[in-house]
Amino acid sequence: MAERSKVQDVSHPQLSETVASLLRDRIMSGQLRPGERIRLEEIAQETGLSITPVREALLMLRAEDMVELQPRRGHVVAPLARQDIIDVFSLQGHIAGELAARVAVSITPAQLDDLRRQHERLRRAAQARQVTRVEQLEFEFHRSINRLTDARKLSWLLRTATRYTPSRFYAADAEWRAGMIADHEALLEALEAHDPVTVRPVMARHFTDGAERLVKHLDGLGVWSG
């Protein structure tokens, strides 16, 4: 297993980002709490990888202020405040709203039909409680909207900000799934009407709802450090 993992590390350098994404999700959903130690060996064993991509992932998370390196303790989860969640999701909603508003101006019937087909696949997955598929299809739905703008830099900023969204946490929440479907249907109606003014708050609500749910969840866990 160790030798096979080392080969994977060499041929797939993106594995460090995969590990970083796993740890981000756990930190933002409260599975890993502020001050909790992250042991390289345990993560490597869990993921079946060598220490190298895990160490690289922690370096990435240190640069993002998600973890800290402390003397005699190693890597620990950085402090997290309620306002951090509100700020991140507010930024996501603002950028996503601007991108969707631009799409509303120029979207074609064929592009709208494609989004509706994606939404229908997502709706069926949500009804079937297929958490992993919901997670994947929700990402693809929003990525398709963002790509229609051809706003590469703005889309990159949104992609960076949404790194901190614990997508598995949301996809597993039945109430969130129902709200997500309703939000998407309202968004599609606004896009069909070529109404950028309506699109912005609809998209923003999609993210503010996510912030409220996550804050409530973390309140219950008592993870706040400030």
What does this structure look like?
The chain is mainly α and 226 residues long. 74% of the residues lie in helices and 4% in strands. The chain contains 11 helices and 3 strands; from the N terminus they run ααβααββααααααα. The chain has a 3-stranded antiparallel beta sheet. A hairpin with a 3-residue loop joins strand 2 (67-70) and strand 3 (74-77). Helix 3 (40-47) crosses helix 4. The protein is elongated. 32% of the residues are buried.
Give a brief description.
This protein has 226 residues and is mainly alpha-helical. It is built from 11 helices and 3 strands.
In helices, the fraction of residues equals over 70%
Summarize the helix and strand pattern as letters: HHEHHEEHHHHHHH
DSSP strand tally: 3
Alpha carbon gap, first and last residue: 42 Å
Rg estimate, integer Å:
19 Å
Low-confidence stretches: 1-11
Structural class from helices and strands? mainly alpha
Q: What share of the residues does DSSP label as strand, in percent?
A: under 5%
Shape: elongated
- Counting DSSP H or I runs of 4 or more residues, the number of helices is 11
Strand order of the largest sheet: 1-3-2
Mean pLDDT: 91
Any descriptors?
mainly alpha; 3 strands; 226 residues
Write the layout of secondary structure elements.
Layout: H1 2-11, H2 15-28, E1 37-38, H3 40-47, H4 51-63, E2 67-70, E3 74-77, H5 82-106, H6 109-127, H7 131-149, H8 152-161, H9 167-171, H10 174-192, H11 196-221
